[in-house]
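Propose amino acids for all 416 sites.
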């Protein structure tokens, strides 16, 4: 005769059953979600503390904007996929194959594979719409770095690409009209040929916030925040878009297809929303930032693709992990972080750790437990799921699951 299930296993089964009925699950890792870890601040925590924060948030992908040896050392044996960056002012130097080989020998090889470097971003936003001086150096530097990786047998483990500013597109609306600017036309075919040959992704820095800031009277706020809204239908394809980010990504895909490169993966190297801004920076608020990034997280947990590629999950790196107080420019530039430099949340987006240093928004309660938690909220329901130590019971707090709670209590009483 088969053994009866233990009380603990039965409880887990019942909890899972009712959570399924309610349309919720336990903490899910967003496998395609990464975070940009900038360092333009004089009050940021040391790399080891940053790694602890990432672990508490269950984030296993990060991007840095250099090859900081302290970070590369701290992230050893962490299993965090790490993208490192060649600074723009190094492109000319690394176009020389010998210099690129030396760079890989000193900046990459000593740390790999203990530190899980997965990609090298060669420059960042080399073209922003205001000059083409660096464009001629981009592809030669990428080719030299890839060849240097190949010399050391690392080319299959580490991809080489570059994050592009959305300004590389001359047209992005509707998405099917996407095409590259004439200014980048000279290098784009060889750049895309390199990506296709090495199976590297096309990275795009996409910020719907900027489009809304420029035209708040013409663009629905819910469309850019990824909230429920009527969206738009591309008149050429009939595809429906319920948010601007996916439309921007598909515009890049169409632009590449126009040049004969329709099979390259597109990933979002940066996207985010500022929580503060100057008077003229429309929409830069805590509320909008929280909604935008929370919706990004939810869609990543569903492994969503874009309308053009619905079955291919879209990899997204949120900008940024911290507010960086030394960044130049308007106030918004210093307020993209999900966290303050002291480790407290700037606002709650659904990634949080319950610790002595964390804080939550006014609408979210705190706990003295050291367990990890995730907050999922909607207009209809608020759910807080806390994963405790295995020796403890899993607690569920819900505002509108009365029927399920009564059924659950009845079953527990009967079983016990």
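Proposal:
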């Amino acid at each position: 005769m088969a053994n009866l299930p233990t009380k603990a296993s039965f409880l887990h089964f019942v909890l899972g059953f009712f959570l399924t009925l309610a349309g919720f699950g336990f903490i899910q890792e967003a496998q395609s979600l990464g975070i940009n870890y900038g360092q333009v601040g004089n009050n940021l925590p040391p790399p080891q503390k940053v790694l602890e924060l990432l672990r508490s948030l269950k984030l296993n992908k990060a991007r840095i904007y250099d090859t900081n040896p302290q970070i590369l050392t701290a992230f050893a044996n962490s299993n965090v996929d790490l993208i490192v960056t060649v600074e723009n002012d190094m492109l000319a130097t690394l176009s020389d194959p010998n210099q690129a080989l030396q760079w890989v020998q000193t900046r990459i090889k000593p740390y790999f594979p203990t530190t899980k470097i997965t990609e090298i971003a060669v420059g960042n936003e080399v073209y922003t719409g205001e000059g083409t001086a660096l464009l001629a150096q981009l592809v030669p530097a990428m080719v030299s770095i890839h060849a240097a990786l190949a010399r050391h047998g690392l080319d299959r483990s580490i991809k080489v690409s570059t994050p592009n500013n959305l300004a590389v597109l001359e047209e992005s609306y509707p998405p099917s009209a996407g095409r590259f600017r004439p200014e980048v036309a000279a290098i784009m075919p060889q750049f895309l040929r390199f990506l296709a040959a090495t199976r590297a992704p096309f990275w795009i820095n996409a910020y719907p916030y900027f489009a809304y800031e420029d035209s708040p009277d013409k663009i629905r706020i819910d469309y850019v925040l990824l909230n429920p809204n009527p969206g738009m239908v591309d008149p050429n394809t009939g595809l429906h878009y319920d948010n601007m980010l996916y439309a921007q990504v598909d515009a890049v895909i169409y632009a590449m297809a126009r040049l004969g490169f329709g099979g390259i993966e597109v990933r979002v190297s940066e996207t985010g929303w500022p929580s503060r801004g100057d008077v003229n920076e429309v929409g830069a608020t805590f509320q909008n930032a929280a909604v935008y990034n929370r919706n990004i997280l939810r869609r990543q947990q569903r492994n969503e693709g874009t309308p053009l590629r619905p079955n291919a999950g879209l990899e997204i790196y949120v900008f940024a992990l911290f507010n960086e107080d030394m960044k130049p420019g308007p106030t918004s530039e210093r307020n993209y972080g999900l966290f303050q430099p002291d480790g407290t949340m700037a606002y709650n987006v659904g990634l949080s750790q319950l610790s002595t240093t964390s804080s939550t928004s006014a609408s979210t309660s705190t706990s003295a437990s050291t367990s990890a938690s995730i907050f999922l909220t909607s207009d209809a329901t608020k759910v807080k799921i806390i994963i405790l130590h295995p020796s403890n019971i899993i607690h569920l707090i819900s505002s509108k699951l009365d029927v399920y709670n009564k059924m659950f209590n009845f079953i527990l009483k009967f079983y016990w």
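The first strand starts at residue 33 and ends at 36. The first helix runs from residue 7 to 22.
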